[in-house]
Automatic annotation (TrEMBL):
Residue ranges occupied by any USP domain in the UniProt entry: 282-875
Catalysed reaction equations from the record: Thiol-dependent hydrolysis of ester, thioester, amide, peptide and isopeptide bonds formed by the C-terminal Gly of ubiquitin (a 76-residue protein attached to proteins as an intracellular targeting signal)
Protein's name according to its UniProt entry: ubiquitinyl hydrolase 1
Region (Disordered): 1-59, 686-705, 879-898
Amino acid sequence: AQGRSRRKSMEEEPPEPPAASPVLPPRRHSLSQDDGDVATAEEAERHNAQEEREQIKPLHDFKVQAGATYHLITASWWREWSDFVGLQDSTSPTGAPPPPIDNEDLFEAGSSVHLRKGLVEEQDFILLTQKEWELLSKWYPGSGPEIARRGVLDGTYAKVDMYGLTLLVYLHKSSDPPKEMVVSSAATLREFKEMACREFDLEPSEVRVWDYFHKKLHKTLETPGEKLKKSQIINNNDILLELKDEHGKFVLKGNFQHSYYRSTGGENTVVNSSRSMGRGLVGLQNLGNTCFMASTLQCLSNIPRFREYFSSGVYLKEINRQNPLGQEGKLAEAFGDLLRLMWPSSDGDMVSVVAPRGFKYQMGVFRPEFQGYQQHDSSELMNFLLDGLHEDLNRVPEPKPYVETVGREGPDEEVAQFRLSQYRRRNDSQVHDLFLGQFKSTLVCPVCGNISITFDPYNMVSLPLRTHSEEMLTMYSVKFWRKPTPQGPRECSMLRVGVPKGSKVAKVRQAIAEQAELDPNQVVLATVRNGYCYNIHEDAGSCEYNASSQTFFAFEVANAAVFQRYLRPTAVSELSAVTVYMKHPNSPKAPLSYSAAAAQKPSPDPILFNHPRSTTMNEIYQAVASQISPDMDPSAIEIYVADDRAYRVEKTGGVIPNNRDPVKGGLKERLGLVVTFVDPKSLVTTDIPGLEPEETGANGGASGSARGNTLSINDCFDLFSTPEKLSPEDSWYCPKCKNHVEANKTMQLWSAPEVLVLHLKRFSYSRFFRNKIGKAVSFPLEGLDLSPYVVGPQSTGAQPGGAAAEDASERPPLLYDCVAVSEHMGSLGGGHYTASAKSCEDGKWYKFNDASVREVTGSSVNQSGDAYLLFYVRRDAQEEAPQGETKVEEEEEEEEEE
Ligand SMILES: [Zn+2]
């Protein structure tokens, strides 16, 4: 979603300043408003804030174009700079200019090549045009490292290719290790060749470039205008540069030809042919954030009847190359090719790891969102993949018959049957034979009682984990610091608050205040990372970023309004907003690094409090000491002045004296202080709250907090079929009232397919972000009885049209057994997918984690709490299926086909 949302979020995010913007204090590095500070003034003079603003502002209003170059910079710098020049509100310049741009926090620890995964635009980085970067890096010399990226076309809109491809480039006949190059997947082969030749100092006409994937010569990359992506070059691909021999000739031949290639165009490659654990126990190499794909593929490949259809080659007879909705069979071929590698017909061909390169490529052709190397939702892939395979294997020849879509009156059984047969006249495939079920959805008009019933096909059932009204809320995790009392130190607790979707910051503060039994004006909402308070949230701002990955921090203070820049009391406050950072005595002046990776150890959470502006030096000491701990002796600490964000301690300033002198002119409105301890040992004692490292990850998001709140799969089915009142936006047109009404809607399973895929709705969506519900869901591995939830006739296909029993208790059980589970752990962006599946070869459970496969116990599968997609097979269908292998002789099939 990088790139395309940038305009939107630019408009949404910044808080709206009131018409009369308050003039901010002129300097940041001093304790009081009118203290002089020569160094800062000089520094500021080199910068013309107004000019910087006026030059950058028009440039920053851009749309990402394919082919253009963009620059990433760290968002924290941009925020500081925006404040400095008054980008949002065009106020006159205030405070000191920011230091040079330091993009260090955008890279993975220890790397200056690889960007951190899961970076979010506006939150972590800002996109600049080439021109903006040139100007800013000229004004702020020493800025860097430079991060230039290309705009690429993603479907119909352009986005910035954030991560690019990392290629390992080998020189033929050289024993040197490969060189690592990061290039855009949109680069052409010619551009890449030129780059590589520059890197190795070679003449392009003397060089031939090879796709050297897994150090095997695949093919030459010599179509100049073709893009790397099109050539199926993937992340961490090996590349070989071949030089002409002494006769001026290229001699290498692409001799690596795997027998599985056939003419499918699929190039799923055997990575490791040793140590195979058995048929189907094959790892899938991660091609760069493709664990969601591996997880889905492993689950599908362990559905016996589905897998056999492909691994036996039967599917080849049913490929429909004419279907305009399909991929001319290429997706089915790439999928089938992969399953045949994973499930070879004889033991001799067994391999242990496969790189699903050909499959990934075809999936990306079918659905462009899967082209890149971003993490995706495995349920989305499932949906699209089943759909794509169905179309490629649709038995209905072109042209498909025309069918009426108009409704039909009659008993439910008749209408449902009619709708299904209409649908199946155009859609008939093995995929549907196994996965297709029907929903019954009932709408009731609240005005006239008119009822409308529809029957729609499905291949997956999405089960809610929350009630409909809960769905409408965004939940936030909040680390809340209560201020100290004369009896005890400040206390920390974790809160969960829910606010209606799209709520502004003010609502979140209100919700926290309610839980903490405080006035909303006693709650400051902030984002704190590794002890650095890098944002105090303004009431008018949006808070959706935090829902996705982070925990909000909230602080109890006397007057929260003073902490907000734009929403301050009309009268000048008597109070100052003070932020205190606790640091090691050896390095009081070291800047706080808000990237935990760069910091040597976790920093304690800051302290926020209000202090009278008219005060003395020793009153400040007393106040800070009592904020740390009620029995802290003020002489045990030293206080330095920092800017109001405490980025750095003032260069020229030292310790502020602990004496009775009044602060001339009074404290400034917002003040940053750095505190160190005279005795370094006080820093390591754990009796000072906030100094111990956090026990749980701050990015726990929704996951950690809902512990002990386990749902059963039956609860989820109950939530699924609970009637809900449609919102005004989704209102239904009642044909009887001839009006839009907020109808009551009920969803039910009319029929359940042989292979039932249950999707636990862990991700709730908002405009920009997804929130994860971390509730554990219990489910049986064997004998899930669906009879209470299937409202249509429970035929198994053998006895069509059996009458529906009114009383669920009279029905025979409809039993399903679990064969595979797709699991998701962590937050969405940075999370990871695995799969657990039951081998039909030995009946044991295995855990598939990218390339690794290991045996696990069944109980570990349904007790992990990470289950996301559940794959169930109807028991009577398993019994129905012939025992043993139903394989059609592969070679014969091939001949028949040709
Ligand atoms: Zn009506």
